Amino acid sequence: MPSRQRINVTTTQRLNLTLALQASIRVLKADAVGLTRYLEEQAAENPALQLGPPPVGDWLPRWDGVLRDGGVAERVAGAGPSLMAHLAERIAALRLAPAEARIAERLVEGLEPSGWLGVTVAAVAAEAGATEAAVAAVLARLQRLEPAGLFARSLAECLRLQAEAEGIAGPVMLGVIGDLAAVAAGETGRIARRLGVAEAEVEEAVRQLRGLDPKPGAQFDAFAAPVREPDLIARPGETGWMVSLNRSALPSLSVRAGRGEGQGAARALIRLVEARNSTLLEVGREVLRRQEAVLAGGMARLVPMTMASVAEAVGLHQSTVSRIVAGTSVDTPHGTLWLRALFSGAVGEEGPSAAALRARLAAMVAREDRARPLSDEALVAALGAEGVVVARRTVAKYRAMLGIPPAHRRRSRGPAREGAGARGRSAL
């Protein structure tokens, strides 16, 4: 029997990722660093797209406190023990002599959560029973540990140590570091005249300086984002918290004047960046509106929040919210935080958020007497006294997630110290 040919008509749906859609997704989910790199690539391929530097006077938010305080180390309560654990491992690798190890222990005890040294060389020498020259020699070795800038005694020294580690500590950079007040005021011309160089050289040094970290110890906070250009800025205002874009994190964009190839593509890319900034600001404001308690009191006051609820509130798809917060950071009075870290489910049906519980555990361990560290059972009891009922296995799980060792491994030698707020000792 001969075969018969038949024509069937069917319909199918398929998502076709055009180049424009791919570019839109890439711009949407990029953080400030990634977006800047992408824009530089596009400008290299399209001469019609012009990139300009961000305003020099728009100083990074994380520098506000250290510049206003005149170089006084900020004392932030509740930092976790990760910095101490990091230094214990690095200093053990130095194989110091017993007398040097005692000096190093005193210097570690004098560190502020920012990573700066909060005690003088003379005070350490008196406590360790050593000469100031011996303390200075050990301090010089500790200042070469990673990350660069630890054990600095001032903001200028912190930046100088990092510039030397990066290989950018030339005469212009050192001159800029020596006049941070003028840098904060955007007076690059005055610095250039004093150094006898072109203002463009000073502006380039300032641009490199902005990539350094004035508080290298803060990156060891379990909830902090790596120090870099934050995408958003959250600051208290007269009518509440004000959330804005960090304009200094991205280059300025423009289209080359006249007519020529690539101008349409350049304008389209600029519109994509503007749409990304608008969406980021809208989502960021909604997230931080719900987490105002975190802006005022830190991560321990985080409330449960899901991406689905935020997406519904701003009228976006949940996948869009997920992309926009994936690598986004926000600068707050409590440091630079990942926006993604502000999303957390509840522990139990009506319990606190999991992230808030981890923050409370980190704060409790940071305040404990290292001669008598808190066991998991003791942490459960302490949380119960604050109205948070959790199981011991839950505390053990979150303690492990924070990188906090068990109580017997946190115990330090020496006599017990009084005061719950004393800084923990590190067994070197």
Automatic annotation (TrEMBL):
<feature type="domain" description="RNA polymerase sigma factor 54 core-binding">
    <location>
        <begin position="75"/>
        <end position="256"/>
    </location>
</feature>
<keyword id="KW-0548">Nucleotidyltransferase</keyword>
<keyword id="KW-0805">Transcription regulation</keyword>
<dbReference type="Pfam" id="PF04552">
    <property type="entry name" value="Sigma54_DBD"/>
</dbReference>
<feature type="compositionally biased region" description="Low complexity">
    <location>
        <begin position="417"/>
        <end position="428"/>
    </location>
</feature>
<keyword id="KW-0804">Transcription</keyword>
<keyword id="KW-0238">DNA-binding</keyword>
<dbReference type="InterPro" id="IPR000394">
    <property type="entry name" value="RNA_pol_sigma_54"/>
</dbReference>
<dbReference type="InterPro" id="IPR007634">
    <property type="entry name" value="RNA_pol_sigma_54_DNA-bd"/>
</dbReference>
<feature type="domain" description="RNA polymerase sigma factor 54 DNA-binding">
    <location>
        <begin position="265"/>
        <end position="411"/>
    </location>
</feature>
<feature type="region of interest" description="Disordered">
    <location>
        <begin position="406"/>
        <end position="428"/>
    </location>
</feature>
<comment type="similarity">
    <text>Belongs to the sigma-54 factor family.</text>
</comment>
<keyword id="KW-0240">DNA-directed RNA polymerase</keyword>
<dbReference type="Pfam" id="PF00309">
    <property type="entry name" value="Sigma54_AID"/>
</dbReference>
<comment type="function">
    <text>Sigma factors are initiation factors that promote the attachment of RNA polymerase to specific initiation sites and are then released.</text>
</comment>
<dbReference type="Pfam" id="PF04963">
    <property type="entry name" value="Sigma54_CBD"/>
</dbReference>
<keyword id="KW-0808">Transferase</keyword>
<dbReference type="InterPro" id="IPR007046">
    <property type="entry name" value="RNA_pol_sigma_54_core-bd"/>
</dbReference>
<dbReference type="InterPro" id="IPR038709">
    <property type="entry name" value="RpoN_core-bd_sf"/>
</dbReference>
<keyword id="KW-0731">Sigma factor</keyword>
<protein>
    <recommendedName>
        <fullName>RNA polymerase sigma-54 factor</fullName>
    </recommendedName>
</protein>
